[in-house]
Amino acid sequence: MTMTNSAPASRLRDLRQNFLAGLTTSFALVPECIAFALVAQLNPLMGLYGAFFICTITAIFGGRPGMISGAAGSMAVVIVALVVQHGAQYFLATVVLSGLVMLLFGALRLGKLVRMVPHPVMLGFVNGLAIVIAMAQLEHFRHDTPSGPQWLQGSQLAIMLGLTLLTMLVTWLLPRVTRAVPPALAAILGVGVLTQVLNVPTPTLGDMAKIAGGLPLFHFPEVPLNLETLKIIAPYAVLMAIVGLLETLLTFNLTDEITASRGQANRECLALGAANVVSGLFGGMGGCAMIGQTMINLGSGGRSRVSGVVAGVMILLFILFLSPAIERIPLAALAGVMFVVAQETFAWGSLRVLGRVPKNDAIVIVAVTVITVFTDLAVAVLCGIVIAALNFAWQHAREIRAEVSDAGDGENKVRTYVPHGTLFFASAAHFLELFDPKRDPRQVVLDCRHLRLADHSAIAAVQTLDERYARLGSVLQVTGLSTRCRSLLQRAGIEPATRQA
């Protein structure tokens, strides 16, 4: 009887926890989406509509429950020039096309490529975005003046700092008292009520933008459907898709690690693509996974699809019915929560291991972190992967070696080389240096039982070696080839083992 009653109670507890996590996350989504819309020089409602569609659709159909997607800044910054030069309608067409690119990526089952991202790149990605999240909050400590944005001063700055620190303290300390309510939610609502009761003069969400609006309406982008339009939007669409997929798949990996579970990467790509197509057709911004909001959701206990759906639907409710209340939330409370998120997102352990891991890995961690902060995520991750790949190639190129033995004497002397390692573009030159055709006898055996031919450079190296011995009238016999390596050589038309002396 106890077991029968415990199951519904457990489900109800999980539902409540995920609902509160989604509610908490929705508060954090609003200022981010508004800010990103303003960065892209778009109507703030476009950011909120985008957050609603992308968050809700990916939560329902995506492959990673618990991960939060929305109108992301990493995608907003790459389309500023497009909006300035061609306007919002071309931007919406770009969002639709980027969604189709994401759908193609998922349909081709390319989500597994995220497994090729080395762990040092992941650490650099997490650290870089944590710094970006923290730096973004500093904008709340500035205000517009006739001479341009200026830092807050005097009592305004003191109040802002005090409320931010109070929010951070509540977020840190409340879990030691109770876990009945997500600490971020309690901090935001608590500081909000405090400022209203005491009539504290401090910037609020309503100072950023008014969020009241109606239901999003279907509206196909008003652009000419011709090749000229495609030439304009295609480069931006592809770039948006690459950035969105990278951030989504890396956040996907991080969520897998935190939840100790495994999601479906290709399904997430398909859901994200569909969400971007729908968002563009209903006047919303493009988006992808958002690491800060995902960390808030996970930290608040959000593990199921319910939390993501609640976060997305609450955005729409804010727009339609709750804007007067939401616009009163102090920016200091939201900044405080995001500072805590940045602190918890940063992989502090990576600082301790920098001196213990190989130097090349340490360079990758630092490089990806710095590049993420000063450029963008796509460039940082690609640079990190290139550095890691070059390091891998260099290490393997140095490891190739050969054992040399002789049998017989005089005209019947045979020298056997037994190379060990992987023969590929980076090791080809060193491989050829292992042989001495001028001093070797006329009969030479290349025993490949411990050698793996990896690419065309490996085939070319074997062919070059064969030609060097042939010019001197010597015979190179290749033995011990695996089925795959023999097939590679035969396809290239190389049969060094068949030549007779």
Brief synopsis:
InterPro entries: Membrane-Transporter-like (IPR052706), SLC26A/SulP_dom (IPR011547), STAS_dom (IPR002645), STAS_dom_sf (IPR036513). The protein has 501 residues and is α/β, with parallel strands linked by helices. The protein has helices at 2-39, 44-61, 73-76, 80-86, 88-107, 119-137, 154-177, 183-197, 205-208, 227-259, 265-281, 291-299, 305-326, 331-345, 349-353, 359-374, 377-399, 428-433, 456-471, 483-491, and strands at residues 69-70, 142-143, 150-151, 288-289, 401-407, 414-423, 443-447, 451-453, 475-479.
Task: Write a concise keyword list for the protein shown above.
501 residues, alpha/beta, 20 helices, 9 strands
Unreliable spans are none
Please identify the structural class as seen in this structure.
Answer: alpha/beta
So how many helices? 20
Largest sheet features: 5 strands, mixed
Residues in β-strands, percent: 5-15%
Tally of distinct domains: 2
Q: Which word captures the global form?
A: elongated
